[in-house]
Here is the input.
Amino acid sequence: MFSTGKGMVKKILFRSSFLNGLSRPKYEFCLSPAQLSWLCRAISETRSANRQPGCIVEVGVARGMTTTFLLKHMEIEEDSRRYYCLDTFGGFTAEDVDYEVTVRDKRRRDYGGFAYNDLSAFKKNLIKNGFKNGIAIKADVGRFDFSVLAPIDVMLVDVDLYRPTLCALRDSYPFLNSRAFVMVDDVVAGSIYDGAGEAYHEFIKSENLPCIMLGKNAGLIINGSDPAAETNSVLAHS
Here is the structure.
């Protein structure tokens, strides 16, 4: 009886033009399908490519939607590597926002997001989802010592602003594994978060690395192979 009633409620929610918003399928990830697919492939490849197992790092986790997606991928593949979640768990730092305002001529009022986050709640959600290899660390990436995580197999940098993006790339680069993949999100121009793109382009220029774009807003760094071949491979799948 209960099952029948529950099914009726679902039927009403799904078919009603007024209530459909509660049940219709939605894409709730900030990253594109191509980005998520690329990250899954990078995680799978590095598992067997490196002689010394490394870790997965996500810099800037927000609610943890991407975290959950990628940890589920690892769970299915029985991949027990550590997945580090680095975040301030309190929004953008005052120093990072000040840089955007005073140096990059941005509006301070645009950077009040993500203050809702909380380390304790994030950790509890990882546990509730059954992910034992997810490790949340509260930190300002601009002052974080990436050597404690070395070697790094895959890293997603999604911190939006110039200073934390540049610091994440610069300070983690020496600790990438022999085969490693890095993705920087929001590599775009003309948005409130275009600091990430400026930092990405500045960093790859300083290291004489190729600019590899996946789709319209993801900048990549690939360690351990022929850059030209990697660029062509990404373009073929973007």
Summary: The domain at 31-237 is CATH 3.40.50.150 (Rossmann fold). The longest helix spans residues 33-49. Helices lie at 2-15, 33-49, 65-76, 94-102, 119-128, 162-172, 195-206, 227-237. The longest strand covers residues 176-185.
